[in-house]
Every structure is written in structure tokens, then in C-alpha cells.
Write a structure and sequence with these properties.
Helix content: 25-40%
Radius of gyration: 19 Å
CATH topology: Rossmann fold
CATH architecture: 3-Layer(aba) Sandwich
Largest sheet: 7 strands, mixed
Number of domains: 1
Number of strands: 9
Shape: globular
CATH class: Alpha Beta
Structural class: alpha/beta
Order of helices and strands: EEHHEHEEEHEHHEHHE
CATH superfamily: Vaccinia Virus protein VP39
């Protein structure tokens, strides 16, 4: 038997971790008719991200690089803040989320932060959210983002730390909470590919200092009992139903029961904390 965080999975049923290069990339068939995880992530974490970028001093004329954009909420906000004299470059290995042609100051480009040379431009801000924990060469990715900054430019990196708080219901006191936590571990097993670091978030302050950033600071956002967490939980289970059941990690009955429990609003659902870390290029 394979054990993940104290839960036993039968290897005769579990086909192993899913090979994904980016946990936000979901097939169109799974997004059809449901709220996407990327939208739920945006609703849940955008206020925290925007607050950090505000404190970093963003204003008209800034040049910003959004790494692994995965959607339009952050880049649209950045474009409004930098105005017509600024620039916002959004890159991702898959830009199928783009629904219409980008207009100045916004540009969308296919780019792999861990493999391709950094874009030129001397950016005032480089931001990556829920990206680095999933790339193969994280050290190279950080170095690439750092090279793209102008002297004095700001780097903001945000990652979840599932190992720091892996539970859907930290207050596990009954069958509904136990089921929620079992399914959270099943989702984690589905997405944990070889080499993935589920404790990566907590190491960001050290990693950014080692990369040469100055004035490094960090904080954690840990939403507990939030409509955004419930929306993300629902989107995740709806979109991963076939994968979870096909891998033998959950039954359709378990998923249906959990979604019904979430809909009652009686579960105190949580996510892993979002670790936000920022600093300046010397």
C-alpha cells in the first residue's frame, strides 16, 4: 500500500501521479459547464496579490511581466494601473485562455520561464503566482525573472504550501470533515508529479535572498471559512471527477456527497496558505 499523509492508497487501483507541467492547465471538456479552477483561484487570491503589488508602488508607466499568467484577471488589473504609457507582458506555456487579441499596454506571448531566455525590457515588476512549484528547473526560472528586472525592480513570487497545511477541514470533527480531508489528499495525489515540492512556498524567502534580491519580505494568507475556498473546492472536484474515479482515488458517491456537504455551507473549508515573497534587485 502507498501512504500519503497518513492515508493509504491501493496501488492496484492508483495508477500513479499525474504528469502535469502546470496545474492550471485543464482540458476544455472538463471546464465545460463548470466554473474553472483558474477563475476560483483569481477570486480567492487576487485581492492579496493586488494588495502586495500596490505596496510595491506600481503606477503609470511601469513595465510588468506576469509569468505563467493562466488567465486575465491579474494582467487586466496591471494594465489599468500602468496605463497607456506602461507595458504588461503576460507569458505562459499555453495561452489558450486568451479570449481576444491583446491591446496596448498588454501583450501575450508563449514562453517557458524555465527554458526560454527572459524577455528584454528592464521590467519594474515581475510577478509569478502558482507557477514555480510546477516547473522543472525552479532555480533557472528565478534567475530568469531576476535578469529581466531593471536595477531596483521588484520581484513578487506567490506559491501555496500544501505540506504546511494539507487539510480541507483543519477542524476535523465528523464524517463530513473526514470525507473532505480524504478527497483533498486524493486531489493532491493526482497532481503530485515526480519532483514536485509541496513545501516549496516556505522556502521562497531564502531562495530569493540566495538569488541576490535585497530587502526580501514574506507573508502568508491562510483563508479559512471563505466563500472563495468553497468555490475553489467545488470547481476542483467537478473538474477532476473523471480523473479521481478513474485512478481509484475516490468514488462517484464520495464526490457527490462531499459536493452536497460543501453546498450546505456547514463545512469550515480551508486552502493551503499562499506564501507571498518579494524583494528588489540590487
Amino acid at each position: 500500500m502507498t501512504q500519503i499523509d497518513g492515508h493509504l492508497l491501493d496501488p492496484r487501483q492508483y495508477a500513479g501521479p499525474r504528469q502535469l507541467s502546470d496545474h492550471r492547465q485543464l482540458s476544455g471538456s472538463r471546464q465545460s459547464g463548470t466554473r474553472s479552477r483558474s477563475e476560483a483561484f483569481a477570486d480567492l487570491f487576487d485581492p492579496t496579490t493586488f494588495g502586495h503589488i500596490e505596496r510595491l508602488g506600481i503606477g503609470p508607466g511601469w513595465r510588468c511581466w506576469e509569468v505563467g499568467a493562466g488567465g486575465t484577471s491579474v494582467i487586466s488589473w496591471l494594465a489599468r494601473r500602468v496605463g497607456p504609457t506602461g507595458r504588461v507582458l503576460a507569458t505562459d506555456i499555453d495561452t489558450s485562455w486568451q479570449t481576444r487579441a491583446a491591446r496596448s499596454p498588454l501583450e501575450v506571448r508563449i514562453h517557458d520561464v524555465a527554458a526560454d531566455p527572459p524577455p528584454a525590457g528592464g521590467f519594474d515588476l515581475v510577478h509569478a503566482r502558482l507557477v514555480l512549484a510546477d516547473v522543472g528547473d525552479r532555480k533557472r526560472a528565478i534567475a530568469s525573472m531576476l535578469r529581466a528586472l531593471r536595477p531596483g525592480g521588484r520581484l513578487l513570487v506567490e506559491e501555496l504550501d500544501p505540506a504546511l497545511q494539507p487539510l480541507a477541514c483543519p477542524d476535523e470533527h465528523g464524517p463530513a470533515q473526514e470525507l473532505a480531508n480524504r478527497l483533498r489528499q486524493a486531489v493532491r495525489a493526482l497532481f503530485t508529479e515526480p519532483g514536485a515540492d509541496v513545501a516549496y512556498g516556505r522556502g521562497l524567502p531564502r531562495l530569493l535572498r540566495e538569488a541576490g534580491l535585497r530587502r526580501v519580505e514574506s507573508d502568508a494568507y491562510f483563508p479559512l471559512v471563505s466563500p472563495g475556498v468553497a468555490a475553489l473546492e467545488t470547481a476542483t472536484l467537478q473538474q477532476l471527477r473523471a480523473e479521481l474515479t478513474g485512478a481509484g482515488l475516490a468514488t462517484p458517491e464520495d464526490i457527490d456527497q462531499h459536493l452536497a456537504n460543501v453546498a450546505t455551507g456547514a463545512l469550515d473549508l480551508a486552502t493551503p496558505p499562499l506564501i507571498s515573497t518579494w524583494g528588489r534587485k540590487a
